[in-house]
Amino acid sequence: MSAARTNGTHLQARYKRLAGRRGPTRALVATEHSMLVSVWHMLTAHQPYEELGADYFSRINPGLTRRRALAQLANLGFEVTLTPHCLTAPNNTRRPRRNVKLPPGALCLARTRVATTPTAPPAGPFTRQSPAPR
Predict the structure, then answer these.
(1) Domain range for residue 107?
(2) Which among 31, 79, 95, 109 is least surrounded, fewest beta carbons within 10 Å?
(3) Same domain, 31 and 66
């Protein structure tokens, strides 16, 4: 189906997320089902289609995305430390959540600074060792 192949769409992101776990055929059927549900809602509510974007899943659950990225870096042998990044930017249009006490003009962004330091991967029976320098 071409909707799953179109770059930068919510349907492609959904297909890719499901194909890794369920396989390409089931992911395609699930994507088609999502399309049918979307069409039904558009027809019953008389609303146009609004593309959610390829980063929809990252936006609705940023904590899960952060944990998944940290786990991938840890599997590659990196030790990662995250520190929140707050900026003072009057021209920034993002607003903090309600009931958050911040100094005037300070806006905390969803960005984080990542400090990575490579660590040696664990040595095991199947780990390839580099030859000793001569």
Answers:
(1) 61-118
(2) 95
(3) no
